[in-house]
Amino acid sequence: MENENIITMDGPAGSGKSTLARNLAQAVGWSCLDTGAIYRAVALVASERGVGLDRPREAGELAAGLDVRLYAENGVTLTVVGDRDVTGLLRTPEISALTSKYSAIPEVRAALMGLQRRLGAGGRVVAEGRDMGTVVFPQAPLKFFLTASPETRAHRRYLQLAREGVPVGREEILEGILARDHNDSSRETARLEPAPDAYIIDSTNLSAFEVETIMIGEAKRVFGI
Ligand code: DC
Description:
Layout: E1 6-10, H1 17-28, E2 31-34, H2 35-48, H3 56-65, E3 68-73, E4 76-81, E5 84-85, H4 93-102, H5 106-120, E6 125-129, H6 132-136, E7 142-147, H7 150-164, H8 170-186, E8 199-202, H9 208-223
Parallel strand pairs: 1-6, 1-7, 2-6, 7-8
Antiparallel strand pairs: 3-4, 4-5
Helix pairs in contact: 1-9, 2-4, 3-5, 4-8, 7-8
Bound molecules: 2'-deoxycytidine-5'-monophosphate (DC).
């Protein structure tokens, strides 16, 4: 039987998903599955190996064969491909833009489906991404869809990157966010949209603490934890 102990967290870039998924997972004692990191690893390796966007079948094969593993360490997801820690390479504007494009390739999405389901199979997981509630874990009893205005999301991403020491301008971030919004919500496969039964939270005027409080309340109500 499919494991029912899954919370999904979907939403656009910079909506605060990653932080909230981590905090919620910690609050309920579950683990966090950052599926964006998997897509980013695929984009990184595909670009390094010269598998272009015009070669969808090969990109899908690369995704299917990629030995990618995620480790939680001090509240950060470490992404390891083979025996190489690629964490520090995944969040640049270049890789963000490329990932948005590679993740629109149906062959890549199909190849990563099984991996994501296997990683969630043990349950007690907060799965974070774009299509967790709609495609990968549609049976999850609790689904969140987090959103915020593009300007708010750009500002948060700016602060996050500044903390991580990635030098990027605010304008560049907003442009990147708008472009990715467009790619993510206009693609044919697994378009970014809330599941019909998702709890939608617009966090434009809410602090992370306020959103987290709502989420923990829902998790208690649904799972009794
Ligand atoms: O959540 P993130 O910013 O790390 O995601 C990076 C990119 O990967 C983003 O453009 C959307 C894509 N993505 C996806 O299509 N499906 C997922 N489940 C997770 C991420």
